[in-house]
């Protein structure tokens, strides 16, 4: 039977994101230029938004006076120590939940109960437990990064290809060998993408941790600027946190490239 | 446009009601007054409870805050019309941006009248800190940088030649907790809170702020810049009403010219706002002991205000170029010598 109907056009294509270089940068520049123009021409009042060039000048002053490091060093220490504890404990507990049924039965409800607690609400309690100095700040950040890391880790362990595990068993690998050579690398992508979230939460908690009793730190600097209604300093501080977030994301990207080479 | 009979009636009675209730300037002008739950804000409480606002045709609503700075921001955003708090860094920055102005004084340290107290935590006191000069290197509690607590601590430190570690704790409640548990060593606060805390033994009074800052104007009355220009009449009216509250308060609790009955009535009134979670008998002594002089006619103490502004500049908390005229509008209230 000969077909005489209209030809069917090709409807495929699309739905495949492609890399467009520089578009992100253009969006940033356009937004900043708009605010700069708006504050200069006066339709954005100095009460609403600071002038981006003033923020840059404040940042430059912070840099040249050396006060940037005065604030950045304690914050980075808190971030590093707190999230190191939280992430290590989180990965450990996550693996335990992923591998042992008793740990899963006992700890999953506990983690689910701890996750939604706003860690900021516990800050006064942590101050009593750990003192007003560094320990309470480490504890807050560690606690904040712990729960998302646990959830990401045991999810990642659950998602390790079971056929690979069965194969390992067929080849007579020991339990420990399977964990080390199949489960750990197989869970790594999930753990690392979970880490992106955990560490972003750690940066958010940095400001919260520095609410009580911190004289130095980016969070304290932002809170001070807020209480003085000094928008230039406020935005300079917020920009530093954003840059910190980008740096952390970049670092995890680099670790992913290194640790996940086996995928290619 | 057609009206039903009911709508017409409602319209007529509504117009009549508003016309009848219209005194001097305002026709039930709705204003929002920011306050903290402290005895020092009693003038607003009195004006509200005794109907002085209503008499002046101001439909005032009190709005409560936790700290001084948010109130300044709320005035700038237009959510609050008048505020009574300390001259904070936020207030000065906002004044510099043309948003708010100080128009009067409110609370004042005065020799002979119990003023703000310098406190030491029990732990610090047991360790031998019995005078403000012994706080060298210790933790001094402040709510936020540039708050009145920071100013007082800094002035005390300068006078004693000591160094204090200013510890921001955001809220007065958090400071009280930290003082009780010995996490911080020193603090200064209005007498009614200081005495209540010292009474429980959790902290110890080790000095008076007045010894270091004799005529410190602790709090001021401020409003949006727009209210000082476009709404002059309303602002003047507010200050008049506020001053009536001040006079009542001073007569009842500071000068004690109204006898026990006047005092008790005032305490009961204030108790509606301050320590309202405690029974009256328990709250009364703190309120009576904590009464500090409120400035009659909201008089401005320019010397003290200038000193405070200079301190903010010296501490690099506000811009160096800000003049006192940018912050204070002295055309509404009298100034003290």
Structure explained in plain terms:
The complex is a heterodimer of chains A (264) and B (337). Chain A has 264 residues and is an all-alpha fold. Helix content of chain A is 74%, strand content 0%. Chain A has ten helices and no strands. The two termini of chain A are 49 Å apart. Chain B is an alpha/beta fold and 337 residues long. Chain B has two domains: 24-110 and 216-327, Periplasmic binding protein-like II (D-Maltodextrin-Binding Protein, domain 2), CATH 3.40.190; 117-211, D-Maltodextrin-Binding Protein, domain 2 (3-Layer(aba) Sandwich). Chain B is built from 15 helices and ten strands. The chains are: A mainly alpha (264), B alpha/beta (337). The A-B interface holds A 45-47, 124, 127-128, 131-132, 211-215, 220, 223-224, 227-230 and B 69, 72-73, 76, 88-90, 93-94, 97-99, 139, 143-147, 165-170, 174, 177-178, 181, 183-184, 317-318.
User: H/E order of the elements of chain B?
Assistant: HEHHEHEHEEHEHEHEHEEHHHHHH
Name the CATH class of chain A. Mainly Alpha
Low-confidence stretches of chain A: none
| Percentage of residues in strands of chain B | 15-25%
How would you describe the shape of chain A? Answer: flat
Terminal Cα span of chain B: 62 Å
* Computed structural class of chain A: mainly alpha
CATH superfamily of the largest domain in chain B: Periplasmic binding protein-like II
Oligomerization status of the protein chains: heterodimer
- Overall mean pLDDT of chain B: 87
- The total of beta strands of chain B comes to 10
Radius of gyration of chain B: 21 Å
CATH class of the largest domain in chain B: Alpha Beta
What is the structural class of chain B?
alpha/beta
